[in-house]
Amino acid sequence: MRFDTHTHTDRFSADSKLPVDVLLDRAAALGLAGVAATDHYEPDYPDPRYANLFDVGEYLAALREADRSAAGGPRLLRGVEFGWQDHLGPELDALAATGGFDVLISSVHMLERVDPYFTRTIYDPGRKAVYGAFLASMARMLRASRSFDVLGHYDYVSRYAPWPSKRMAYADAPDEFDEIFRLLVESGRALELNTRTGYRLLDEGVSDWLPDPAVLRRYRELGGELVALGSDAHQAETVGRCLPEYAAFLEGLGFPGIAVFFGRKAQVVPF
Questions:
Q1: In this predicted model, what pLDDT tens digit does every residue of 226-258 receive, in sequence order?
Q2: C-alpha to C-alpha distance for 143 and 136, rounded to whole angstroms
Q3: pTM (2 decimals)?
Q4: Helix/strand/coil (H, E, C) string of 114-164?
């Protein structure tokens, strides 16, 4: 019953090289029960090459057509990853209101309209300031909108950090983490663990590439149970990557299973 709940296809995400048929082939080869296509939806992104905006009806129809579950293949869940900025609440609400989705992820990719993927000067204020500011932006997102189901990759900013130890630790911003966790628990939404952050560190030879256990322990202490798990795959070789290691990590911390959304409703799939 393993699912990869965060992937991107080449037809609808400008930065993906993964055709949906290849995504499903790879999922079948890995023995996954299903995958969620969560293509980027990025209103008002400053670089027009990555301002992903698509016709929602066309998108949902394409995913329904590609699904193989009726023939015994992996299930293709219909999702989207919304690129949050503080002024975009109405756009997210309108997207959610169209219906037809299994899961809506909302993610922070930018701080003051700067994406660390492209611009390293975002790190100039220092580790705690930058990590704290990103987490504070996620808390604002959680307070501003209830239209999404999953808080995407809380540690996105750490992927491209210039410091020898990149991994975002609970000690970097405990107050901001606590605020996020309280908001998630109060609203019944899921925290995502995104394995792409981990396998980037793994490929760099970092030994502590899994998330900081203190982050997940604190989430659990504050009542958090829903954790989604996705590879953030943009190419075939990373579909499902490190899902088993992350699942074992969560099981060791006492979580009951992985949150998978079907028709916007969370189901905890046991390990």
A1: 999 999 999 999 999 999 999 999 999 999 999
A2: 11
A3: 0.97
A4: ECCCCCHHHHCCCHHHHHHHHHHHHHHHHHHCCCCCEECCCCHHHHHCCCC
Containing structural domain, residue 9: 3-270
Name the token pair of 40: 């980027």
- Which residues make Cβ contacts (< 8 Å) with residue 153, sequence separation at least 6? 107, 192, 194, 196, 197, 232
Q: Is the dihedral of CA 147, 150, 151, 152 positive or negative?
A: negative
- Coil, strand, or helix at residue 165? coil
Tokens 């989604």 found at = 228
Provide the 8-state DSSP code for 166.
Answer: -
Structure token digits, residue 186:
């109060």
Measure the CA–CA gap between 34 and 47, rounded to whole angstroms.
32
From residue 6, alpha-carbon distances to 63, 142, 152, 213 in Å are: 14, 19, 9, 22
Question: How far apart are alpha carbons 262 and 63 in whole angstroms?
Answer: 14
What whole-number distance in Å separates Cα of residue 72 and Cα of residue 43? 36
Q: What domain count does the chain have?
A: 1
The b-or-e profile of 70-103 (16+ CB within 10 A means b, else e) is: eeeebbbbbbbbbbbbeebeebbeebbeeeebbb
Of 228, 169, 232, 248, the residue nearest 197 (C-alpha): 232
The tens digit of pLDDT for each residue in 140-158 reads 999 999 999 999 999 999 9
CATH number at residue 111: 3.20.20.140
Give 153-197 pLDDT, tens digit per residue.
Answer: 999 999 999 999 999 999 999 999 999 999 999 999 999 999 999
**How far are the Cα atoms of 76, 241, 262 from residue 36, in angstroms, in the given order?**
6, 14, 10
